[in-house]
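Batch 3, record 17
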Amino acid sequence: MRSPSLPLMVAVLLLPAVLSHGSEERAAPDAAQGSATDAVPCGSSEGIEAGPRLAAWMEQRKAKCAHIVPEKSNFLERQILAFEKAERPSIADVNFHGVYPRLQSIDHRSQTALGVRFWRPDLEGSRFDLAGDAFWSLQGFRYFGAQAGVMPHRGKAFPLFPFKGDDVFELANVRQDDNKAYMLFGSFVYRWAPKFDFFGIGPDARAEDRASFRQRDSLFEAVGGYRVLPRLTVSARLGSYDVALGPGEDKVLPQIEEAFDPATIPGLVASPPGFWRFGAAAVFDARDVARNPHRGGLLAGEWLRYAQREGGASTFSRFALDGRAYVTLGHPQRVLALRAYLSRDEPGPGARVPFYLLAYLGSSHTLRAFDSQRFRGEKLALFQAEYRWEASPSIELALFLDRGAVAATTDDPLDQFRTDGGIGLRFKTHEATLVRFDVAWGSEGARLAFRFNPSF
Amino acid sequence: MGRHTARRFVTTTLAAAVSISAAPALAQKFLPDDPLLRDHDDLHVPRPREVELSSGYDVVENTFFRKAPARGAIAPAGNVNTLGEVPDSSWWTNRIGTRSMSIEELVQGPNRSEGPDVAGPWTVIGGKVGGITPGFSIRDSRGDVYFIKLDPARYFGLSTGAEEIGTKFFHAFGYFVPESWVVYVRKEQIQVGHEAEVRVLGRKPRAMVPADLERILEDAAALPDGRLRFVASKAVPGAVLGPHKYFGTRSDDPNDVIPHEDRRELRGYRVFCAWLNHDDSRSLNSLDSYLAEGGRSYVRHYLQDFSSILGSGSDWRRAVAPQNPRAGNEYIIELGPIARTAATLGIWERPWHKIKYEAYPQVGGIEATVFDPDAWRPEFPNAAFQRMLPEDAFWAARIVSKFTDEAIRAIVAQGDFRAPQAEEHLASMIIRRRDKVVARYFRALNPLADFRLTQGAAGPEIAFTNYGEDAGLGSVGAYEYEWLRFDNASGATESLGPTARALGRAIPLPAARPEYLMVRIRSIAAGAEAWKKAVDVFLRTTGELKIVGIEREV
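Prediction for the assembled complex:
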């Protein structure tokens, strides 16, 4: 849910006022000269003494008097001008009392989803914000969310919302350029994902074992955070998480119960338990520009506990670290970007992490040449390197390498690394990646990622 | 014209640029009113429609939709007289290029009034938040309207100084520019008027409230005594018609018959902009005004907004900041460098990446070491700039050369930076850049100009100035010349004697006095091959002896 929407992209690509340096019109605003000469015929040269050269010129001007056509801009110019002058809202700003139509991807395999985002920042001049989302995808995915409280944001920009486990770096980050140094809000999120994939657990999961299942989950939580130092933010969260599983709706894939022995898949039960979810996180963000970094780094650490509300067979804690470094190579047009992401789950004695809560590799942000959620496990290590070079400040290319491994259980070694590599093309502003095309090749073929956010 | 047909001579007459029907007299090369010193493009015309240009479309159109013509396909400028000079018009007034201007005149610039009353109250009648230079418009105690811009506190004088200096320079060149002053006013003197509107970038205008003014002024540069620093530009006379483009003509202005890209003052504008790093020389920074004079109403063409010239520019937030090194060195969108950087994995770097600027916050990013007048770029292609021919550049460079070191320092002082070292640095950059401009364009052709008739010891002579030699670019050993009889009707020439040499900058007139005389002059200077290109000077002998035409081999 962190992607800028397609309409926003279209608006940006129309080259709106971003390119403007502005101008001042310096004629007197109440000037209305010319009225005294209204009766004078066009081309009048009264008082001008003209020789043959000048007379010839004046003749041509007089001749043009008979063919005056009002100056008019063409259609494209008028449309761009309308955006620049905000005579009509940009597509991205079209809303009805804070309800914005959107078209975007909402989850793994969701494909395009149509929906609305509700956003009423700083209600009535207060620090209180309201947000909400409702999306339906072509693949039958649904997503609903609502937040209320103090949510850091910048200007009219939508806030970032936590949901997915691989977003540890965003979870607790009150960004330096946000308008508030703290956050305190309540959140509800509901997700209906009828076509999630499951390949097995651990590094030996095979692509041909791909099976389908349905996951419906909901999360109520309260989130608080504070920017204790300009670059250091801490946060805590407490909530309730519930999940329901069912048959996947992907007709070409077997159901998860058909492909796997339910007894070997932790959490694959008819009535999954509910959880209390709570945790804390700290983020040290020293990137020069958060969503278009050229130097600096980020270090985020999170502890998150899922405590089964009844019984304890699925209770576990997750410790995750996300480190990123951005090194300018001689000039900011060349950047070496490095990332290490480590995650380790600590189940209670005799407990196992439910398969649907396992950390995973395989996505446009992790192992890019592999299916989404391709490898799940209680332990995970991911290393990424990108050499990025800017052909211009708004066009970036990249060569990248991803290498990662999972272990089925915390006690298993991380020794079966998967590797992929590829090339990327990104269009950016100074502040953010607008569009990213990454083509990755790995042992299971090639994949194209088309996203509206940075890889890391 | 003999071998003139093999080489291109600049026959820059008004008649050549525009097809004029039913004018038999124009069959002659020179007409009785040549050379025309004033182009009366101020015939009465009905009021044209006010237009608004899109800044984004301006970039797109000029970058992608308008292709530069091949070098050989560019016609000479269409609005010069038979001397190759630009007559006065609604676009241009000859100033320093054709007459001496005192320091006082230069620093006075376009100002004809006293400027805003800084002792009385200012009533804000409109505001702008955002853009390179947030600002507002006011009515002073005298009732005059001014447009006010300011600097951020950490860049005292950066944009306002650039605006003031630019106004003086571009006025001295010959353009119409608004009157402008650097002023200091206390915040308490400024009040928001009842009917003031504010424009916030990308939003609809709304009623302005005191908080808007507070926001505009919150980070304004100020003197130690608390007075805020502004540059105040007076509203130009007449009614606003919007900007003009650098190509085509206005379809609703009958006086506008010469395509803008063929106007020498707009082609040569490139030289001035390169000299002063006016990379923001886009249509939006021009302004047409409809005004009445002498019982006629017509359109006058202004240049405005010089706050982003010299070392002043903007950062990615579009706030006032030292000029980005790209500015003046590469278009916003230029495919060549993009492709080259992409193909070399970013190993190839733009040469301008290595430019080092002196760190004066008042001056910003301007340098003279890497600066190359030919390689200089505005923000995006400009049709008039793309058509600048050597003779256009020579015309402009001659004007640039008229600014002495003393004159430049005097104009820079108008920036009122209150930082002597910064001021001297800026002046020295402008002086060094002037020298580069002059060197580049005076070396491209025979740099003789300012032809005049004088009385020598042996009789009448034709004297001239050698701009190249005066700029120290070479030393002429002799001037080779040949007198010819010129037939004004047919254009045929007939030699009146053998080629001769003169050691000085004066050539004696021949005894023969046909109706028209022509003298072809070449400068013989070691290492300056281009100076051997011919300059033909035409004289009319009937009536008063008069120089009526100049043509240059290019």
